Amino acid sequence: MIKLAEFASSAAALSLADYCKNQQLDVSVVVHSAQKAELWCAPEHAEQVMAELERFLSDPDAQRYQAAAWDRAQVPASDLGSASLSGYWQQLWAQGGWFTHLVWLSALLVYGWQQLDPWSALAALQLQPQLGVSPQQGWRWFTPGWLHFSASHLIFNLIWVWYLLGPLELKLGRFVAISLSLIVLLLSNLLQFVVVDANFGGMSGLVYGLFGFYWICGWLKPSWGLQISHGLVGFMLIWLLIGFFDLLWISMANWAHLAGLVAGMLCAAVLVILSKALTVQR
Q: Which SUPFAM superfamilies match (predicted)?
């Protein structure tokens, strides 16, 4: 699926989508609020949907759109649940590229592995103290991010990964998403291992890295569309401080969080500088 347009009215986006679906065009709407929605479609239908979009913008109150909305409303009651669920998962899937999907699915599989055989999962994915800071750790410099020690820990991190990594991959591309994730995971795991020990896991370092990346991009390059609210920035920083002051009943990988945040901010700054340099050269 590709994003074709953003609407300042979710009702308008849904009205056009209803009409397109009646024309057998593969479209979906991602609703963020009553005042913000996105129209997505299958690549092979992009040209037809763009044509319909132009017609809609010239006359959004046309009878054909109202008729389509009415037709879509006449779904048999027995089909409502499955249709709604199918549409929800379709929209959810469209909010990220294959790398985001891979991160999500692999984290779920690793958590299942931990439930079946926790010791072998730890032996394979957790950093090994006896190897120290060396290349011999190999993949383990990255894989502690896939270890989660409760369902709530896993769900909390995956929600943020989907919310932040998915749009980033779609807007800046897969290469940026993969590179940023690997850099943040490496540095956050390295600092936590060096300062504390190897007994940690989870994608919180990556989440903080994504927060930091969005924060700087929203500040220095708002045209990229990667922005988070001041409230979320405040929450992120307060949560980081709470962890360092040890005010919670749970143990947190605070140095991984800090390293992830700084790494994400630095990656964003470097990317913005490079983009400006390339623009000047052109």
A: Rhomboid-like
Over range 232-237, report the average pLDDT: 89
Contact yes or no for 256/205 (Cβ under 8 A): yes
Average pLDDT over the chain, rounded to an integer: 85
Catalytic status, residue 204 = yes
Which entry of 86, 152, 257, 275 is annotated as an active-site residue?
Answer: 257
Assigned CATH topology for domain 98-281: Rhomboid-like fold (1.20.1540)
Report DSSP letters for 143-203, one per residue. Answer: GGGG--SSHHHHHHHHHHHHHHHHHHHHHH-HHHHHHHHHHHHHHHHHHHHHHT-S----S
Residue type, 117: D
User: What's the token pair of residue 64?
Assistant: 């054909």
pTM, rounded to two decimals:
0.68
Catalytic residue among 10, 181, 188, 204: 204
Q: CA 82, CA 179: separation in Å to the nearest integer?
A: 38
What is the DSSP pairing of strand 2-7 with strand 27-33?
Answer: unpaired
